Amino acid sequence: QVQLVESGGGLVQPGGSLRLSCAASGSTRRFTSMAWYRQAPGKQRDLVAVIDSIGGTHYADSVKGRFTISRDTVKNTMYLQMNSLNPEDTAIYYCNIAFNLDVYWGQGTQVTVSS
């Protein structure tokens, strides 16, 4: 069993930055990928960024050059550094961890970009 807890969301002005964290507990050694998704009101949940077990990364076009995904293997924590935020980035951000047969999700953290 794996538990994921996100933190770091909040209210930020356009152009600002936030860093989200996703702390994982449980048996995570054999994961295949970890990812951030987001869901805006009335919209589907979309992939934001993913990092695989050897550190390879992939980003949605809308966040390339502004967001950076990373992972601290000692702390068993994944991060999403978000810069140059704009109102279109407002959403609930979820982290997930995937194994060969299972996927686990965190509870989400709200990010609101507004002046």
The low-confidence runs, each spanning 5 or more residues with pLDDT under 50, are none
Biggest sheet descriptor: 7 strands, mixed
Query: Average pLDDT, to the nearest integer?
Result: 95
Instruction: Note the overall shape.
Output: globular
Please report the number of helical segments: 0
| Strand residues, percent | over 45%
Portion of residues in helices? Answer: under 10%
Radius of gyration: 13 Å
N/C terminus separation: 40 Å
Oligomer: single chain
* SSE string, helices as H and strands as E: EEEEEEEEEEE
Structural class: mainly beta
Counting DSSP E segments of at least 2 residues, the number of strands comes to: 11
Helix/strand layout:
Layout: E1 2-7, E2 10-12, E3 18-26, E4 33-39, E5 45-52, E6 57-59, E7 67-72, E8 77-82, E9 91-98, E10 103-105, E11 109-113
